[in-house]
Design goal:
Chain lengths: 211, 284
């Protein structure tokens, strides 16, 4: 391990312990770690944007390739920043209009073709694939129908509509339960990742110098 | 204070300590619980496994250090799988904070398998623009990424002599911590008619099951568990050493058992306390 790597591991271990200290109670070390994280993230993001976007796509395009078309999107980008200047903030609307219009034009046909229609076809599959698949299909149809009724607010949720929407609520709760279970798993994975780092990179490789 | 009240008023720091111990002990002394690969993960493994030497696979590493324990093992395992099969990975990221981990993974695996950048693999790095980048790659990869991550022009690379756009890829996999799976499905896989798999954080796994059910992705790996299953499959077939995801699964299982037992116990205690309150009210 080089000196730079050793310093990096000690810094990372120290920051990890600073963040863990919040588990006991809020404290100055946690606050320091939190602010460092935010500051470094913003600095890194700005740096990446400059080197990966502005330099190759704007500066090099104009100075080396003499591609002056990039001035138009660059100008639209500057207009967005002008929202900070109230007297000329209206210019940003042009950029947003261009962005939203362009993206909607790209997204609508693609999303309908590549997402909405395949999902719709899967929901409305014919009942000819064996009893197990047919049962699945009935559950899917029932869930889609009842959840749609649950989110249909033009009718009061009483009697028949109320009953159907309660079934929809039942499906929504199952979905939330599955998501929550996965979320718990994800958070524990993050904890395991940090402990693996502390045990392997910090204690075994840096402090004990084991391979 | 009796047992029921003790449980209901338990200091959260005691729970944190138990969770920490349950993570720490299996990491120090693993008890090697079996890991059974699920059909969802096998769906990705089999698709990559059927690729022929010289085929091309597009790997999008759309995650950052916040999802490292869940997704970096999957990226490493997929890269190892590609190199075992002599398949050419084309790695990129749509996340500004993604290149660091992706670079670390591909350089480590390339060194292990003695693979050469530009010939056996290409690390394209990061480009800003999500959908715009994908659409650009549907037209031309070398026009969208004129240089690779190291600043080398892509147009002259041997790996891009037979590959010009996404339609020339034999498989796509998005290893994602955000919503990019849908972008890749809609704008790349569906447009270019290329099969695709997805690996995501556990939090977002449930969102992608409809894509799997509809056959829009061939497989789905969710979180560290999915990565561990992939490592198990790879180790079983090619003898590749298991990685960090498998090592973490004992701890994951131990904490899950504790959480389930805690929920059951807390609910029993809660209902007992409700019953007691009810009895006290009646007596009063």
């Amino acid at each position: 391990m080089t000196i730079g790597e050793i310093i990096g591991v000690w810094l990372a271990a120290g920051l990890t312990l600073m963040m863990f200290s919040f588990i006991y109670r809020d404290n100055a070390f946690f606050k320091l770690g939190e602010h460092l994280y935010l500051g470094i993230s913003v600095g890194y993001f700005v740096n990446i944007q400059y080197h990966q976007v502005l330099v190759p796509d704007v500066f090099r395009a104009i100075r080396v390739e003499h591609d002056y078309w990039v001035l138009i999107p660059s100008l639209l980008g500057i207009f967005i920043l002008l929202r900070l200047v109230p007297s000329v903030a209206w210019l940003s609307r042009m950029s947003f209009a261009f962005y939203i219009g362009g993206f909607a034009g790209v997204a609508i046909p693609n999303v309908i073709h590549g997402y909405f229609l395949p999902q719709l076809a899967e929901t409305l599959r014919p009942f000819n694939a064996g009893w197990g698949n047919n049962l699945n299909q009935i559950v899917i149809l029932l869930a889609v129908f009842t959840v749609l009724i649950f989110f249909f607010f033009s009718l009061e949720h009483k009697r028949l509509v109320g009953g159907i929407s309660r079934i929809g609520l039942f499906f929504i709760m199952i979905s939330f339960g599955a998501s929550f279970g996965y979320t718990v798993m994800a958070r524990i994975s993050l904890l395991i990742g940090r402990f693996q780092f502390l045990l392997d990179d910090w204690i075994r490789h840096t402090i004990m110098r084991l391979q | 204070m009796d047992f029921v009240e003790t449980i209901l008023n338990l200091d959260r720091r005691i729970i944190y300590t138990i969770v920490a111990l349950l993570v720490l002990i299996p990491l120090i002394k693993p008890f090697s619980l079996p890991i059974k690969p699920t059909p969802e993960v096998i769906g990705i493994f089999n698709e990559i496994d059927r690729l022929e030497p010289g085929d091309d696979i597009l790997i999008a590493a759309d995650f950052d250090p916040a999802s490292k324990p869940e997704l970096l093992p999957m990226l490493e395992a997929v890269l190892a799988h590609c190199f075992e099969r002599d398949v050419n990975p084309h790695l990129l990221t749509l996340w500004p904070s993604g290149p660091g981990l992706a670079q670390q993974a591909i350089e480590r695996q390339a060194e292990l398998y003695d693979k050469k950048s530009g010939t056996d693999y290409c690390f394209l790095g990061f480009r800003y623009g999500n959908v715009a980048v994908i659409l650009g790659m549907v037209s031309s990869i070398t026009d969208t990424f004129t240089t690779d991550f190291y600043g080398m022009p892509t147009r002259n690379m041997p790996i891009y002599q037979d590959v010009s756009a996404i339609r020339d890829m034999d498989y796509i996999i998005d290893i994602a911590a955000g919503a990019t799976v849908e972008f890749w499905v809609v704008y790349a896989a569906e447009q270019a008619n290329v099969k695709m798999g997805a690996s995501c954080t556990a939090v977002s796994a449930t969102s992608y099951y409809p894509l799997l059910q509809a056959g829009q992705i061939t497989g789905l790996s969710g979180g560290m568990k999915g990565s561990a299953e992939y490592e198990t499959l790879l180790s079983g077939k090619y003898g590749v050493p298991k990685g960090d995801a498998v090592k973490g699964m004992d701890a994951q299982s131990a904490v899950h058992v504790f959480i389930v037992l805690s929920i059951v116990l807390a609910n029993i205690c809660y209902f007992i306390s409700l019953k007691r309150e009810d009895e006290e009210r009646r007596r009063a």
